[in-house]
Amino acid sequence: MPAPKVQALRALRCRTYATTSRSALTSTARAKAEQISSEWKGTSATGENTKNFIGGEFVESKTSDWIEVADPATQTVLTRVPETTNAEFDQAVASASEAFKSWKRSSVLTRQRFIFELQHLLRKHGDAIANSIVLEQGKTFADAQGDLLRGLQVVESASGIPTALLGDNIEVSKDMDTSVRRLPLGVCASIAPFNFPAMIPLWTIPMAIATGNTLIVKPSERDPGAAMIIAELCQRAGLPEGVLNVVHGTVPTVNAICDHPAIKGISFVGGDRAGKHIYERGRKTGKRVQANLGAKNHAVLMPDANKNNALNSIIGAAFGAAGQRCMAISVAVLVGNAQTWIPELVERVKKLNVNQGFEKGADLGPVISAASKKRIEGLIASAEEQGGRIILDGRGIQVPGYPNGNWVGPTIIEATTDMKCYREEIFGPVLIIVPADTLDDALAIINSNPYGNGTAIFTQSGATARKFENEVEVGQVGINVPIPVPLPMFSWSGNKASFLGDVAFYGRSGIDFYTQNKTTTSLWKAEDAIGNKASVDMPTHH
Ligand code: NAD
């Protein structure tokens, strides 16, 4: 039996945040919020509850423990997310277990057709998903569309599932064959972070389902809307009930996932603390676990770089999505003369428009919560206290019309690698600048950092790029490319402290993660095939 969820933890949790009335939304935002509530069964942006999705039904939770989701630009409460109860969680697992019996036997072409239909519906309803992301997460509309599109690419690559699941077969001895089949694991679970509410669920839903598994998704409790719309689109695409279920909540729900014996695999994306906990707790009960964790991504600017491209690239990668991307460039290592580019960098960054995500010309929105804003501002202050140089200070920024937003303006700090602002993942619009004399010095800085998610170099020299690519110990490398996220014909390849597990997300690794091999060795001796002439006598079965 799964371990009971810790009820006491719930009672202690503070779930209500400072909120303002719905009228704080602009008329544009209000219209989009109303549209979301009226068109989608599982989510709301007008204050009603988010539902669980269990056994093909969007059901209201019976919990007494609700978490408010507030628009980070105005603090307007958009919806309330349940801490799914033990009974509801068990129902979701039971439903996924029941559905697995038939889904695992569905033909690979049936699963491929589902993927085709899902990709069509995601494109058709992309704006609804993006609207939900702008409201709950705070991204700009264009960035929210990008969030969905990067997930859609995984859906599209999953349409090649019949080829991806082809097995090997060889005659190993005279008349003896061995063949391998790639079979699903069973019920799997996917635990998502707040920063890509569409992309991360779409890293796992198509891969798990196309390979014949059933899945329980637990979206971030801070922005579950996109996942709920995606779940409804899966249903509309013809997915049988129970193949996909969505439950909600925080630590108790996550622990229930880790402990339930029927769950065979967990995909986690999020921060270090939760990731280590889930990896250890999930492995204890024998589950396969893949966990993408935090990051500190360095971009090296060589003095021979194309300055215009290099500066624009790192500005986009550092401040886009308010720095809340696991592949955001959070450190710029300026080598030699590239250090003279700082004033130009600052001038360009000052032109970025911080605003609510539906506002025209917005480059970056608010950070996810007031607590996050406070933490980011604390890290900026720590740089000041430890002798760092604040070149551009985004604290205290005002955005007209949005007095209550979680605003942090773009910030640039020159620091050294022993300072707290360098050592910790800030996850906000803050770029740390570290000077270096040579490429070797830059490589030493990056390779001493515990994280290994992404890195980039800007140079016009092939030799420099090649040396960097060979010697840097980070799993995803960009050469004149600031955010080198591999497309899903490849697999995610973050390493070192940015990943726990053995098998990565999506692409070929994604197929490997969600399947186990079964080999069959069979012997059919040729001499046992008797008779070389058809018998025309009445068969008597003697
Ligand atoms: P988070 O770790 O706070 O939350 C992620 C998920 O874990 C959520 O569903 C949450 O409910 C759950 N959770 C949170 N704390 C928990 C705990 N103590 N025990 C069990 N479960 C817990 O992460 P976040 O703030 O939502 O997302 C930001 C983090 O995610 C950043 O560190 C970022 O680098 C990382 N991230 C990594 C990647 C990657 O691919 N490497 C991608 C996106 C985000």
Automatic annotation (TrEMBL):
It holds the Pfam family Aldedh. Residues 58-519 form the Aldehyde dehydrogenase domain. The keyword Iron-sulfur does not apply. GO terms for cellular component: mitochondrion. InterPro entries: Ald_DH/histidinol_DH, Ald_DH_C, Ald_DH_CS_CYS, Ald_DH_N, Aldehyde_DH_dom, MeMal-semiAld_DH. Its EC number is 1.2.1.27. It comes from Cerrena zonata. This is methylmalonate-semialdehyde dehydrogenase (CoA acylating).
